[in-house]
Amino acid sequence: TGSIQHTLEKSLKELTGGDGALVKTFRESFTEMLKPLQEKVDALGEQIRKDEAVAEVVEQTTLKGPGYEERVATELSEIGRPIGAHVEHIGADNKPGDVLFITDENSAAQSGIRIIVEARDKQDEKGRKQLSDELITKMSERDANAGIYVCKTRKGLGKTLGDWVEGVNDRGPWIATTHEHLAAAIRMLLVQFRLQALKSKDADFDGAAVEAQIQQIRTSLNRVHQIRKKSNAAKESMEFISEESLLLKNEVNQALIGIEEALRKATSVNS
Questions:
Q1: Which of 86, 87, 91 is nearest to 68 (CA)?
Q2: 117-131 pLDDT, tens digit each
Q3: CB neighbours of 80 closer than 8 A, spacing ≥ 6?
Q4: Among residues 24, 44, 65, 87, which one has the fewest Cβ atoms lying within 10 Å of its Cβ?
């Protein structure tokens, strides 16, 4: 007949000589071409899955040893010791706030600072207003003039906030951040109090250089957040590539099956 299928089958028979050599060569060549890419995609996908599994276990499980509040209190003590700051773990009294970081006249830092630190190891994403409202309550309860809301993981803050958020309420400045930036948050607040004290004491004091450095710190922290966002996007892209690669392999396999079926029919008709 003059149908398209008959013409295709006839052409395929002529190209292959009826022995399937073209199909075999095509299959081997295409498979070989895909192999290096598939190996890399599979390896990367496996590593991403392992990394995410480990992170999930760490986030969801309380490991043997001190709880997160105790961990924060211990680290704050290490931060405060060199400058003569006093740290109190007060979370056990079931009142707002977990740890107090206090400076006095014997401290190397500006005296009269009381920073209440709220330590969270749960994934309860909060927005800026929620953070501000929660911290002012804790600051008032503990007579603090600064506050820190520290999350064990990045999932504790709203996705739009990043790893570092600053604000000011009626009690004073506050920072919400992740655990890795806890020391930086303490130092940032100490610097701000010292700068404010110097301005109040000396009308001629020019704090522009210090304020510029503070702004540079904020810019750098924002860049860290942007890099992480891009890294997460890259992971999602690699997962997409892996899925698409698998789909393409299946499509190639189905196409080859169709070709082989057409060849078998052509061979049967002409045998």
A1: 91
A2: 999 887 677 778 888
A3: 86, 87, 101, 186
A4: 65
With left for phi above 0 and alpha for psi between -120 and 50, is residue 149 left, alpha or beta? beta
The amino acid occupying position 171 is: R
Structure token digits, residue 32 = 């070989």
Tens of pLDDT along 64-101?
345 899 999 999 999 999 999 999 999 877 777 899 99
- Say how many C-beta atoms besides its own lie within 10 A of residue 91's C-beta: 20
The strand pair at 146-151 and 114-120 is best described as: parallel
How far apart are alpha carbons 232 and 244 in whole angstroms? 18
Helix residue spans in 81-176 (DSSP H): 128-141
Most confident range, picked from 3-12, 164-173, 246-255: 164-173
Half-sphere exposure of 49 (CA within 13 A, CB side): 8
Cα–Cα distance measured from residue 235 to residue 231, given in angstroms and rounded to the nearest whole number: 6
Domains and CATH numbers, the chain: 4-58+232-270 (no CATH), 68-182 (3.40.1350)
Cα 232 off chain centre by: 7
Say which residues have a Cβ less than 8 Å from residue 144's Cβ, sequence separation at least 6.
97, 100, 114, 115, 116, 138, 171, 172
**Per residue in 131-157, pLDDT tens?**
889 999 999 999 999 999 999 887 777
Burial class (CB in 10 A: 0-12, 13-18, 19+), 186: buried
> For 17-158, where are the E strands, in sequence order?
86-89, 99-102, 114-120, 146-151
DSSP state of 179: G
Return the bridge partners of 166, or none. 175
| Cβ contacts of 22 within 8 Å, gap of 6 or more | 12, 15, 16
